[in-house]
Amino acid sequence: MTAAPVKIGIVGVGHVGPHVANSLIMQGIADEIHMCDVNRRKLASEVQDLNDSVAFAPHRVRVFDCGDEYERLASCDIIINSAGHVTLAGTNRDGELYAGVRIARTFVGRIAAAGFDGFWIDVSNPNDVVTREIQRLSGLPPQRVMGTGTCLDSARLVSVISLATGIAPQSICAYMIGEHGFSEIAAWSHLTIGGVPLARLEAVDPDRYGLDRAEYEKRALQGGYVSYAGKHCTEYAIANSAARIARAIVHNERAVLPVSAQLDGQYGKSGFYISTPAVIGNGGVEEIYELDLPHDELEGFLNSCAKVEENYARIPELSVARSRTNPVVIAPDPDHDDEYARGLFPSDVIH
């Protein structure tokens, strides 16, 4: 009996990329992991450490050092992008707007030109903007390109509610929707615990379920910065978010997850990426759910959509043809020139 190995590529081995690889290994999701980064020394160290850990995994996994030869990832089933610059997002994820896009532009087109036809999962920030740029440069159908979006933010909302109520997080269904950033909102109208709407539980037991919604939404929004304040990165939860999406694709779970996906008429919007619950299976984003939101939540969600559209419009142009050259030469931007114009691409992001 033979079966094709599940191959997953990872670009960026700062804080997040290695944790994604470790999660894929320990959950038994991948058979092979192919990793790229421009920091060759860091990459070699991570690959060594990960291969050493395989003896404790559910099954054998082989981890490969692909250096900065991005074309070697073309044979993968899924590629996860975690390359970014965490310090630029120290106060706002939009701080990585130019960096995240410019970094992605150095490898997405090259991988596409090498024949990649799998799935992209973007972790880098600003997540919705970078994910859209990956889809444009890859030439893949939008269903095959998605971002971690508000998967992590939703988990943070579940976490704070679980701690407040004493209910296991697995029994709480809650979504943050909109951009992965400060304009996202909590979809309180659709929050359930054990299938029971929060509003009904609150009416029966206000002491336990009468949550200060503004405060708990704020905690979900700012959870990443709590982590960042103490260790200058986020790593575990966002890595598990990416692995969770990959698992849904690999095993055709058709799981409903709040990923960053390209809207196609939902909420009256089209052509850009943002998070709302979506069905994830071996077809990628197989269906996008449009929540029936009350006026205030719909207004907040549409404002978040506008924020993402505005950010995307700020990105300097780069043709698909130029992105598919090797090496990709990106001219310095006089308005946003920094270390990226000199070809230095640290591999960390904050979530």
- CATH C-level of the largest domain: Alpha Beta
Strand order of the largest sheet: 3-2-1-4-5-6
Overall mean confidence score, pLDDT: 91
Backbone shape: globular
The CATH topology assignment of the largest domain is: Rossmann fold
The helix content, as a percent range, equals 25-40%
The SSE order reads EHEHEEHHEHEHEEEEEHHHHEEEEEHH
The appropriate CATH architecture of the largest domain is 3-Layer(aba) Sandwich
Main pleated-sheet profile: 6 strands, parallel
| Rg calculated over all Cα atoms | 20 Å
Distance between the termini: 41 Å
| Beta-strand content | 15-25%
> How many structural units, i.e. domains?
2
What does this protein structure show overall?
The chain is α/β, with parallel strands linked by helices and 351 residues long. The protein folds into two domains: 7-149 and 320-340, Rossmann fold (3-Layer(aba) Sandwich); 151-313, Lactate dehydrogenase/glycoside hydrolase, family 4, C-terminal (L-2-Hydroxyisocaproate Dehydrogenase, Chain A, domain 2). The protein is 38% helix and 17% strand. It is built from twelve helices and 16 strands. The strands form five sheets. It has a six-stranded parallel sheet with strand order 3-2-1-4-5-6. Strands 7-10-11 form a three-stranded antiparallel sheet. α6 crosses α9 (213-231). It is globular and about 60 Å long. It starts with 6 loop residues before the first strand and ends in a 28-residue tail after the last helix. Residues 339-350 have low confidence and may be disordered.
